Task: structure prediction
Amino acid sequence: MTINSKLSPAEYVKTVIKQDQIDKYLNNGKDFIDDAAIFTELEKQKNPDNIKVRDIIDKSLSMNTLSAAETATLLNVDDPEMLAKMGEAGLKAKKFVYDNRIVTFAPLYMSNLCVNACLYCGFRKENEDEVRRKLSMDEVRRETEVLAGKIGHKRLIAVYGEHPSTSTDYIAESLETIYGVQAQTRRGVGAIRRVNVNAAPLPIEDLKVLHEVGIGTFQVFQETYHHDLYSQIHPGNAVKSNYRWRLYSMHRAMEAGVDDVGIGALFGLGDWRFEAMGLVAHARELEAKFNVGPHTISFPRIEPACNAPLAGSPDTRVSDANFLKLVSVLRLAVPYTGMIITAREGKSIRDQCIPLGCTQADCSSKIGIGAYDEAGSKQDSSKQQFMLGDTRSLEEMIRDLAKDGIITSFCTAAYRCGRTGGCIMDMLKTGKEGKFCKVNAVLTFREWLEDFACPETLEICRPVLNSEIEKVRMSLKPSFYKEFMNYYNRIESGERDLYF
Ligand code: SAM
Ligand code: SF4
Result:
């Protein structure tokens, strides 16, 4: 039986967690995060020598996930020369797996109704200044029309608070609504082709329903992997107070057939090195149990939020220098995974993170409920979860990336061709998916330019487009290149959604 959306919040809190869907994954009653062992490893690997660090970098470039000891070693690197080498290697790994491109997406906030009490979030139930509501399906449609028809996004992350009235039925209906929108663009029709979901952990039965309606990546961030800290910042008997229900949400997703999963931690709650170790341990656990690691890793830093005691001035805020090191280490530790740098961060830090190997970035982002369809672009702390650092539009972002020689990709082909989970992992690790990435990036970029770019943007993007086409020509068999150019020309003539 899936979650009953008619439950009162109190009944929901009491019934949603299925203890047997936690216990079955435990090892002798223990979960896979050993807090003491993580701290011991971090201590043990202090002052690493450069030869060891170089060896670890080489292992990562062979597309192998790093061990706890290796990850701890990289987290302890302070030598600027070695940090620079780690950065260069990260970019090399990213190019091997994902080629020279950034995938863009936008968040779509569906609801700020929430039964939980997370001390860092503006949606916490105690925040009485938050104006609460969920989008109706008409509103979901209108938001999507703006995103797909006016801005040009092809991918969304749909975001939900935790509440019975916005649980599985609502998530499923909203996904179907989004996929159903066909919005008129300048020269064609715009549609959202992949909807990822960031929502509360769900039982296996409910995840099966989302699999049926075509969920993209299922994202759940652990927030902190530290058991005691987790309890302190999720007080009371809220659903989210249950560390293990959350820790095993991706195990349940895999069992339900949702094999593109996104993990993350909220940085600034505790020791950032510990959280990095937790993320890598999570990736290794998924690899060991399901032969598939995380499709993406997210590493948001806490941002100011309305009436949230832990957001705003946390003593543990991760400095910019440590944040950049964190990005480098995660890139090398899980070399095949997608890495998401969100618009929580300001432009300057995003610009520094991308060359370290990030693969995805959101832009034109608005995180108020119904904010895309509302006039005006001002952020309003009483209507959104936290405040954004980078409010660049998609077009501005595309131009900035193009100036740095990076192509923006709108490709959603892998998932639509069934290249998910274990299948895509193998293709990523062997660099095969990168070849698809390149051709599909060019095709989808051309499509976006046709439908949305102003003449100035077209001019700025022409060099990167031409250079990528040339690289495709050099790397493909002539017959495939001919087929690719055929698609390219058909897109220029107005056809849409052609991909390999
Ligand atoms: N309600 C669901 C949950 O908590 O899993 C999903 C949506 S929640 C809105 C998405 C994520 O936002 C959380 O997992 C958390 O990591 C992040 N978040 C919460 N408060 C934040 C803040 N003040 N600054 C930055 N990110 C925050
Ligand atoms: Fe609710 Fe998620 Fe915010 Fe916690 S982080 S208060 S669960 S929306």
